[in-house]
Q: What sequence folds into this?
């Protein structure tokens, strides 16, 4: 499964460009770094629809989350749960880039393990809060 959806649109995931990195900190916490790229071929089909919802965009969305510290779970997996408002700690940065940086809110990490990354939240597009979801099996090209 490789879902990267915004609203009701699934952009899929480009596993060759997307990255997930967990850095173990000295205090037993994990620092999370995630870059998820929408699939170019899927995006092109969506953007080619005249007057379609995404026809204004030139390239697929990219989700990023960097520097979020979470408690380490069993076998090196991050604990699930909401990290707090706006991806919690001040050192963390997050958003979705699609023609411009777009703020995210209510980020909820459902699972971050050796097998799966699943998260959801809200992203602001032109004054509208749209739900987004990322759900990736971590086997295969997306480390």
A:
């Amino acid at each position: 499964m490789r879902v990267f959806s915004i609203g009701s649109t699934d952009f899929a995931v480009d596993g060759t460009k997307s990255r997930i990195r967990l850095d173990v900190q000295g205090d037993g916490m994990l620092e999370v770094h995630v870059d998820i790229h929408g699939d170019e071929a899927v995006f092109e089909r969506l953007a080619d629809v005249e007057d379609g919802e995404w026809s204004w965009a030139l390239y697929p969305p990219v989700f990023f989350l960097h520097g979020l510290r979470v408690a380490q779970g069993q076998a090196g997996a991050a604990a699930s749960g909401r990290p707090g408002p706006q991806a919690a700690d001040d050192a963390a940065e997050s958003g979705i880039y699609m023609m411009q940086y777009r703020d995210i809110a209510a980020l909820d990490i459902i699972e971050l393990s050796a097998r799966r990354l699943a998260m959801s939240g809200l992203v602001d597009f032109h004054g509208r809060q749209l739900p987004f979801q990322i759900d990736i099996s971590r086997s295969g090209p997306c480390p």
Q: What stands out?
A: Residues 107 and 121 are 4 Å apart (CA to CA).
